[in-house]
Design goal:
Elements: E1 2-5, E2 18-23, E3 27-32, E4 37-42, E5 59-61, E6 64-68, E7 73-77, E8 83-85, E9 91-94, E10 101-105, E11 110-114, E12 120-125, E13 131-132, E14 142-144, E15 150-153, E16 159-163, E17 166-170, E18 174-182, E19 185-192, E20 198-199, E21 214-217, E22 223-228, E23 236-241, E24 244-247, E25 258-259, E26 265-270, E27 273-278, E28 284-287, E29 296-301
Antiparallel strand pairs: 1-4, 2-3, 2-29, 3-4, 5-6, 6-7, 7-8, 9-10, 10-11, 11-12, 13-14, 14-15, 15-16, 17-18, 18-19, 19-20, 21-22, 22-23, 23-24, 25-26, 26-27, 27-28
């Protein structure tokens, strides 16, 4: 393992108890956002950059991080550093069932759902109905039909119609839809995917006419990212949460945006490095000194990264195995 203390940087101005884990070709680098202490999990150049899927390349499952390398999917325990090979996989996505995850294998065109032990719960062929819906959701449990309408995969493998409308963003629990009853009467709404009912929430004014903009929903559906194209080489990205509007430093990296566990921060990969914006208070930090090109980032609680305190300067545990198991 490798643990370093980088140069001082502009902190977020408050204690966050959050760690950013950044993927490069050669390593996972854990960055404590409160201290800038670093810890490296070497990956020995096994990551194929072309396999990095927008927004969902890294997925936290319990205390383990699922990392698809392009040849296999690893489950790397953040408390011990132990890596388990879960077999072929090009992409990972969250499942509705708590603790479960989906792994996509492109060559076989299948998704398999696994539990926290890596046991396969079910496998589905894709596409087997509708169109793959990937508006920031990255999950096979949602599908949209040509012309509008959203469907959800049930436990028995059937598709259940949820509502009419054009999906703009979504996740496993909520969806942002836009629909028009006439050319002069359009609106947007957030739906609870379990009940199909509308969630009463104040939405950005831009959703009255969302053309040319793109949106992302946070895991709970409480926060929305809005990307506005500009005439420059970057886009303006705004975050909406509890009627608070903040500009972010994501710029052209908005597609890789990921929220902190409490959804008060957004991180993304940009051409400058890894950006973290504090939506609650408006401060931001950009990490430009990461060894290797950042491919993806995920925010996790610092408590689950090597026991929490160790990443802030304590000695590594002598029994920890940091390198992933060799690939066959």
């Amino acid at each position: 393992s490798e643990q370093t203390s980088a140069a001082r940087f502009e902190t977020l101005g408050r204690a966050t108890n959050t760690t950013a884990i950044v993927l490069t070709v050669d390593a996972l680098t854990a960055i404590d956002l409160d201290t800038n202490q670093r810890m490296s999990y070497p990956l020995d150049g096994e990551i194929e950059p072309s396999t990095v899927a927008v927004g969902r390349h890294l997925l936290l499952q319990g205390q383990s991080l699922l990392v698809p390398s392009g040849r296999a999917t690893w489950s790397i325990h953040l408390g011990t550093g132990k890596a388990t090979d879960l077999g072929n996989g090009d992409r990972v996505a969250p499942a509705t069932a708590e603790g479960n995850a989906w792994i996509w294998t492109e060559q076989a065109a299948t998704w398999r759902e696994i539990d926290t032990t890596g046991q396969v719960i079910r496998t589905i062929n894709w596409p087997d109905a509708g169109l793959y819906w990937d508006h920031g959701a990255g999950t096979p449990e949602l599908s949209s039909a040509p012309g509008g309408g959203i469907y959800r995969l049930t436990e028995d493998g059937d598709w259940r119609f949820i509502a009419d409308g054009v999906p703009l963003a979504g996740n496993n629990t909520t969806a942002l839809l836009h629909s028009c009853s006439s050319i002069h009467s359009c609106d947007s709404r957030i739906l609870d995917l379990e009940t199909g009912s509308e969630i009463d929430r104040r939405l950005p004014p831009s959703l009255e006419s969302p053309a040319s903009r793109q949106f992302r929903l946070s895991p709970s559906g409480d926060s929305i990212l809005e990307m506005n194209p500009t005439n420059r080489s970057w886009e303006a990205v705004f975050a909406y949460n509890n009627e608070i509007v903040r500009g972010t430093s994501c710029m052209q990296g908005w597609q890789s945006a990921t929220w902190s566990p409490d959804e008060t921060m957004v991180a993304c990969v940009t051409d400058r490095g890894v950006s973290v914006t504090d939506i609650a208070y408006g401060s931001a930090a950009v990490f430009e000194d990461i060894a290797g090109e950042p491919l993806a980032v995920v925010l996790v609680s610092s408590d689950i990264v090597r026991g929490g305190a160790e990443i802030r300067g304590g000695p590594p545990r002598p029994s920890v195995t940091l390198a992933p198991a060799p690939l066959p």
